[in-house]
Design goal:
CATH superfamily of one domain: Immunoglobulins
Largest sheet: 8 strands, parallel
Structural class: alpha/beta
CATH topology of one domain: Immunoglobulin-like
Radius of gyration: 26 Å
Strand order of the largest sheet: 24-21-20-19-16-13-26-25
Helix content: 10-25%
Number of strands: 34
CATH class of one domain: Mainly Beta
CATH architecture of one domain: Sandwich
Strand content: 25-35%
C-alpha cells in the first residue's frame, strides 16, 4: 500500500546522517486514493545524554517544520499508481532522533510505517563542522603487538619476566598454581624493532602505525598499566618511542597509541599492591593520593575490571584522575608532545561522557588533527552502554571506531556466502554514521582480540579448548580455500569506506586461535609472499585512486553470488566486485574499461568466480 526507502534519497534527502542546523525532506508514497492524510512522528532519543554544546537558537524556516513532534505531510502530486506526500523538517540541535509515519486511510484505519510494532527509523543529527582528520583518510593502518613483531634493541626485561628464545613459539596461556595467567613471557620485540622494519611497512603502503599498549607494565600485553608516564623499558623506553615517531614521519607515517584509561594493574604506581614502586599506592593506605581513583569495599576488596583481580577498575569521574590524564601537564599532553598523533581508546563504552569529553578536548588542544578511535563492537551511532545512549558521533568526541560490524559481515560474505548481511551492514553504516566518520572508520579483519583471520576463514570446526587449538592447523585444502577467501576479504577491507587496519602478520599468512594464540611472533623468513604481494597490490591501487579517500559508496549488485559497488563519482570511480559463486558473472555496466588488478584494458567486465575484481575508467 505504501513505499518508503530510507536508503533512497528520493524518499529521504539528504541521505545518511544529518548536519545540524539543517533540514531533512521526507517523502512517502501511498496507493492512490487510499490516504486521507499522512503524519510523521519525530521524537528525541530518551536514553541519550544531552549534547554539551549550547548553540544559538535557530528558528525553523517558514517552509520547514520543527523536527520534534507530530506533523502532517503535504500532498505533492502523483507518480504512477501512488500519491506523493512530503515534508521538510528542521533540526537545530544535535542528537539521536527516531521517526515513523502514520497513514490515516479514507476508511478510518491507521497504519504505521515501519509496520512492525514500535519500529522507527533513525536520524543521526550531528554538530556542524564535526570534521575528522584528513591525514587518516585514504591511508592504511598497521596494528603492531610490540613484543611479537621484531627484536631490534637490547634485551631489558624486569624481574619476574621470562625470556623466550624460541621466536615463534606458542605464548604461555595456562594458569599458574594460583589460577592466574601471568602473561609474563617475552619474545623480545620492541620499538627499535618497529623502527628497523619501517622500510617493510612503507613498501606495504602503511601510513599509520597503531601500537598495542606500550606503557610500563608487568605483562607482555601491557593492558595492566604500571606507569602512564613511562614507556616500558623492555620496549626501549621513551627514547625509542620518540625515535619511532621521528623516523616514521620521514616515511610519511604517523604513530597512534592504545589508551587504556578505565583500569590499571595491581602492580602499578597508583595501586602498588606488591610494593614495587617507591610511593604509597591506593592498596597500601587510605592516605594515598590515588586512593579515590579506586573503589574499595568494607572488607578491603576492590572493584576490578570485569572481575579480574589483576586489573583494579578506575573511577574515571574522579577530578584528580581526570586532571592527571586530561590536564595541561597530563598523560595526553605529555605523549602528544613526544610525537604521538592519536589514540585508540580501549573499551570506550566504559568511559563515561564526563571523562570522554575532556579526554577528547585534551587531545585536540595539543594537536588539532589528532585522531581519536574508540573500540566499539556494535553500531556505534546508537550504542547503549550501562543504560546510556552514547553520543560518539554527534560532535566533539570520536573521529572513528573499530568497525567490527563490517568485519563480521565480510566474513559472513566470503565464508558463509551471505551477501545480504554485507549489503545490510553497509546500508546501516551509510544511513547512521556521518560521512566524515565513515571515511575514517578503522576497518579490521583481525586483532589481538580475535582469531587470526586466515584461520577463521579456512576452518570448519574449531577445537573447544586452547590446549587443542594450540596444535590446530589448516590442512592444504583448507589453507587454499582460506587464502582465496582472504584475498576477497582484504579487497573489501581496502576499498569499502574507511581505513583498512592490518593486524601484524595477517598479510603474511599467520594462523592462530583466540588470545593469546593470535599473538604469536611475526614469521620473518617464513612469510606467505603471495599474500604479501596481494596486500601490496591493494595498497597500490588504494594509493593511486583518490576516490578511496572520501569517495561516494554506491551499491551496484548484491545478488546471484555477486557483491558489487562503486567508489567515487563521474570518471573518478572504481568498480569493485566479489564473486562468491562457482561461475563467472558478467557485470552490466558501461565506461569501466581497465582491470586494476592486472593493469590491462578490459573489453568485458567479468567477475571471476571466487575472486575479487576491480575496474577503472581510463
Amino acid at each position: 500500500m505504501y513505499i518508503f526507502d530510507e536508503h533512497n534519497e528520493y524518499f529521504r534527502y539528504p541521505g545518511g546522517a544529518l548536519e545540524t542546523p539543517g533540514g531533512l525532506r521526507l517523502r512517502l508514497q501511498v496507493e492512490r486514493g487510499k490516504a486521507a492524510n499522512v503524519r510523521v512522528h519525530i521524537k528525541p532519543d530518551n536514553l541519550a545524554t544531552p549534547f554539551p554544546a549550547n548553540p544559538a537558537p535557530h528558528r525553523a524556516q517558514p517552509s520547514k517544520s520543527p523536527a520534534v513532534g507530530v506533523t502532517e505531510l503535504t500532498y505533492a502530486g502523483v507518480v504512477g499508481a501512488y500519491d506523493i506526500f512530503e515534508i521538510e523538517v528542521f533540526f537545530a540541535t544535535p542528537g539521536l532522533y527516531w521517526f515513523h509515519f502514520t497513514i490515516h486511510t479514507v476508511h478510518g484505519e491507521e497504519l504505521r510505517v515501519p509496520a512492525h510494532q514500535g519500529g522507527s527509523f533513525q536520524i543521526t543529527a550531528y554538530a556542524q563542522n564535526a570534521k575528522t582528520p584528513d591525514w587518516i583518510k585514504g591511508g592504511i593502518i598497521y596494528h603492531v603487538f610490540v613484543d611479537r613483531f621484531f627484536r631490534g634493541g637490547e634485551l631489558n626485561l624486569k624481574p619476574g619476566a621470562v625470556f623466550r628464545e624460541d621466536w615463534g613459539g606458542t605464548p604461555y596461556y595456562t594458569p599458574d598454581e594460583k589460577g592466574i595467567v601471568r602473561n609474563n613471557d617475552f619474545f623480545g620485540g620492541d620499538l627499535y624493532g618497529v623502527i628497523e622494519k619501517l622500510p617493510y611497512l612503507k613498501k606495504l603502503g602503511v601510513t599509520c602505525i597503531y601500537l598495542s599498549p606500550i606503557f610500563e607494565a608487568a605483562s607482555n600485553h601491557k593492558y595492566d598499566t604500571g606507569d602512564f608516564m613511562k614507556i616500558d623499558s623492555s620496549f626501549g623506553g621513551c627514547k625509542a618511542l620518540e625515535k619511532l615517531c621521528k623516523e616514521a614521519a620521514k616515511s610519511d607515517m604517523k604513530v597512534i597509541l592504545d589508551g587504556v584509561f578505565n583500569h590499571v594493574g595491581t602492580d602499578s604506581r597508583y595501586f602498588n599492591r606488591y610494593g614495587s614502586y617507591d610511593e604509597v599506592g591506593a592498596y597500601q593506605s587510605k592516605d594515598s593520593p590515588y586512593r579515590d581513583w579506586f573503589t574499595f569495599n568494607k572488607d578491603g576488596s576492590y572493584e576490578a575490571w570485569w572481575g579480574i583481580e589483576l586489573l583494579p577498575a578506575i573511577n574515571e569521574q574522579n577530578p584528580h584522575y581526570q586532571d592527571f590524564i586530561c590536564g595541561s601537564e597530563g598523560v595526553i599532553a605529555h605523549w602528544t608532545k613526544k610525537g604521538v598523533s592519536g589514540w585508540r581508546l580501549d573499551v570506550v563504552d566504559e568511559l563515561p561522557d564526563a571523562f570522554l569529553d575532556p579526554l577528547c578536548r585534551a587531545m585536540r588542544r595539543e594537536k588539532s588533527d589528532a585522531v581519536i578511535v574508540g573500540e566499539v563492537w556494535e553500531d556505534a551511532s546508537n550504542k547503549i552502554a550501562y543504560d546510556v545512549r552514547r553520543r560518539y558521533f554527534l560532535g566533539g568526541q570520536l573521529d572513528s571506531v573499530t568497525n567490527y560490524p563490517l568485519r563480521d559481515a565480510i566474513i559472513a560474505c566470503v565464508k558463509e556466502n551471505d551477501i545480504q548481511q554485507l549489503a545490510d551492514t553497509m546500508a546501516r553504516i551509510s544511513a547512521n554514521y556521518p560521512k566524515e566518520v565513515q571515511d575514517a572508520l578503522m576497518n579490521t579483519l583481525g586483532s589481538h582480540d580475535t582469531m587470526r583471520i586466515l584461520t577463521a576463514l579456512g576452518g570448519t570446526y574449531f577445537p573447544p579448548t586452547k590446549e587443542a587449538m594450540e596444535h590446530y592447523r589448516l590442512d592444504n585444502q583448507q589453507l587454499k580455500t582460506a587464502k582465496q577467501r582472504l584475498k576477497m576479504a582484504a579487497a573489501l577491507q581496502f576499498t569499502l569506506p574507511g581505513v583498512p587496519c592490518v593486524y601484524y602478520a595477517d598479510e603474511a599468512g599467520m594462523e592462530g586461535g583466540a588470545d593469546p594464540l593470535c599473538r604469536k611472533c611475526y614469521p620473518w623468513g617464513h612469510e606467505d609472499t603471495e599474500l604479501i604481494e596481494w596486500y601490496t597490490l591493494l595498497a597500490k591501487i588504494r594509493r593511486e585512486n583518490k576516490c578511496f579517500i572520501d569517495g561516494k559508496y554506491e551499491l551496484i549488485q548484491a545478488r546471484e553470488g555477486v557483491f558489487a559497488f562503486t567508489r567515487g563519482e563521474g570518471k573518478n570511480r572504481v568498480l569493485v566486485a566479489i564473486n562468491i559463486s562457482d561461475t563467472d558473472k558478467t557485470l552490466q555496466l558501461q565506461d569501466f574499461n581497465h582491470n586494476a588488478l592486472t593493469n590491462r584494458s578490459a573489453a568485458r567486465l567479468t567477475a571471476k568466480r571466487s575472486q575479487a575484481s576491480m575496474f577503472l575508467i581510463k
